[in-house]
Amino acid sequence: MRRILACLALALGFVTVQAQAEELNIYSSRHYPSDELLFGKFKEETGITINLIQGGAAELVQRLKLEGANSPADIFITTDAANLWRAQSAGLFQPVTSPVLEKVVPAQFREPSGLWYAFATRARVIVYNKDRVKPEELSTYEALAEPQWKGRVLSRSSNNEYVQSMVAAMIAHLGEEKTEAWAKGLVANFARPPKGADTDQIRAVAVGEADVAIVNHYYFARLLASDKPADKEVVDKVRIFFPDQDSFGTHINVSGAGVAAHAPHREAAIKFLDYLASPEAQAVFAEANNEFPIVDGVAPSSVVQSFGPFKRDTLPIDDLGKNNGAAVLLLDRAGWR
Fold first, then answer.
1. 314-327 confidence digits (pLDDT tens)
2. 294 close to 147: Cβ distance less than 8 angstroms
């Protein structure tokens, strides 16, 4: 009888569907331990094995382009609106919807047609040397371009997506002309040519190479949570400030994912996106990587909660991608290297 049922299942295609549902091919440009934890929990819950390919965002986008219709990728995960936009513009996602995603992912944090969904957010904040700057001296991103900050500001380089998306947001709020004037003023106030990652900027502020830097909040949170003596020395010297609280709010960016255009395991891929929006997965984003969850009711980590409440920019993340090209050109004109 078992053999007859197996033959019947094969004839009706059930075995093929089951085999497809047992694995998922994920291309990811995120390199956080939290994600390994998420993948393991997803397999425990569903029985679906995850085959992971990691690389830089640009590298994976190029790989997906070259693979075309033969790509084994089911999911592309990446950080920043700029990378999501580039994948979207290249036709590397397919639109998907589900009751879960429609219900819990706010409209601000998803592509309108369902090409991608955000699952965690990060705030672009100012860190400052507490011995050289008083918090009342700080107010907005725009104010850092004023003459009193000459030689006192640090930033990553213009080829970094975090910088590009922040400028894209400024374009949306201020227009290109005002944003370019601001960018030129900020460049004139750099303490050194842009270099290094966000943590490098924080460490440089701590030792007095500059007085302020613009960074993602979770880099500071990691240092704050660290037990390493060198990290404790850094956080003893610096503090965090959320800019633009009296205007459009602190700039917000995302980590997000979408189903690949030629996904061989589409249903499993949607199930994975649903899982990323679950309270369990959202708690991992929050606790293991100090990102802000996007689902209501899931609390940030205790470290992030210690920063206190703040006003966030409500600009649709999709708009950051749309302005990316203009932002890149503007940064070049401003001399932001």
1. 999 999 999 999 99
2. no
